[in-house]
Amino acid sequence: MSDEPKEAKELKEAKESPEKKEMVKALFAEERVVTENSDAARELYNQSRYGTLLESQKVQLSLLEALYLVEKGKLEVLLGKQKLLDFDALLKKAKKVEPNFWIRYCVFKDMRNRGYIIKTALKFGADFRVYDRGVKPGEDHAKWVVFPVHEASSMTWYEFAANLASLGSAA
Question: Which of 32, 69, 129, 133 has the fewest Cβ atoms nearer than 10 Å?
Answer without folding.
Answer: 133
